Amino acid sequence: MPQQPHTLSHASLEQAAHWYVQLQDEHADAQLRTQWQRWLDQHSDHQAAWLYVQRVGQRFAPLQGPGNSAGRVLREQDERRFSRRSGLKSLLVLGASSLLGWHAWRGAPLSGWSADLATGIAETRETRLDDGSQLWLGAQSAVDLDFSLLARVVHLRFGEILVETAHDTRRPFFVDTAQGRMQALGTRFSVFQQGDTTQLNVYAGAVEVCTALSAERCVIQAGEQLSFGVRGLGVKTAASSAGESWIHQRLNAEGMPLVQLLQTLGRYRHGHLGWHPAVAQLSVMGTFPLNDTDRALALLQAALPVRVQQLTPWWVTVEPA
């Protein structure tokens, strides 16, 4: 996701995207570039949003050769501007989430490059582990494996996994995230790690959770789910089928907030998928294809008071209808 970066406003991102498209037009003139320059200089958020859009645009619709006058002007002006100290400040405003998002478009976030197993955009992976356990990785996910004579440990760096454990009474099976440790008690379960939260869904057996800092413990039974952070546990609720439906290239939404569904779709499509804050908490019901995100967005538009605005094939936003 590269989803829209939380450090930048929706308005700044959309304005930057519109400027980018206009400046690529062969009819772009000096007056338009002057207007763009004035907008760019108004606020550091505009500069950061411009950098973000450039990274997306140059990845999916690269500027043509030196004959492209608009492209040449943009490159020359950006080289001067962002080589100075002010450019470094703009990059800082852009924020780590945006930079990681940029690397995600190239296949996987930076921290996944050295992982034992990793997936890129729209890629899932099924693996049988040495002990016979089955492991599925969702799109843009990465894990490290640490199997020894004493324990079986899967370290989830980021993203989403589904696990079906093999029976081994001598070696407990753990999944670790930044938020804590989960011990499988003969089970099938999914784990999704994002930001400062881990979400656990248990579909068979049970899983014991221990948080990283507070060491709070609880057992989650089949049919339950739990979100937790380093200092505490959330409230148990009914398990969501969304946690395992993705292995069949679909996402089951059962009263899911629209922002959560769009964040998931963003891991299964190239480019920027953003949303207006006003639609983020709309409740979604239905089944959406992950192998055809354009169709999934069309289904959303038909079911909810939203419109899908496609500025370019690589820049799509969901707006209020």
Structure, described:
The longest helix is centred in the first third of the chain and has 17 residues, at 44-60. By secondary structure, the chain is an alpha+beta fold. The protein contains nine helices and 19 strands. The two termini are 24 Å apart. 32% of the residues lie in helices and 33% in strands. It has helices at 10-24, 30-42, 44-60, 69-81, 85-94, 96-105, 242-245, 258-266, 293-303; strands at 117-118, 125-128, 134-137, 142-147, 152-164, 173-177, 180-184, 188-194, 197-204, 206-211, 217-221, 224-229, 232-233, 237-238, 250-257, 272-275, 283-289, 306-312, 315-320. The protein has three domains: 10-105, no CATH class; 110-242, Jelly Rolls; 249-320, 3-Layer(bab) Sandwich (Phage tail protein beta-alpha-beta fold), CATH 3.55.50. Mean pLDDT is 85; it is low at 62-76 and 79-108. It is elongated and about 75 Å long. Helix 3 packs parallel to helix 6. The strands form three sheets. Strands 1, 2, 3, 4, 5, 6, 7, 8, 9, 10, 11, 12, 13 and 14 form a 14-stranded mixed sheet that branches. Strands 16-19-18 form a three-stranded mixed sheet.
Strand and helix map with partners:
Elements: H1 10-24, H2 30-42, H3 44-60, H4 69-81, H5 85-94, H6 96-105, E1 117-118, E2 125-128, E3 134-137, E4 142-147, E5 152-164, E6 173-177, E7 180-184, E8 188-194, E9 197-204, E10 206-211, E11 217-221, E12 224-229, E13 232-233, E14 237-238, H7 242-245, E15 250-257, H8 258-266, E16 272-275, E17 283-289, H9 293-303, E18 306-312, E19 315-320
Parallel strand pairs: 5-6, 16-19
Antiparallel strand pairs: 1-4, 2-3, 3-5, 4-5, 5-8, 6-7, 7-10, 8-9, 9-12, 10-11, 12-13, 12-14, 15-17, 18-19
Helix pairs in contact: 1-3, 2-3, 3-5, 3-6
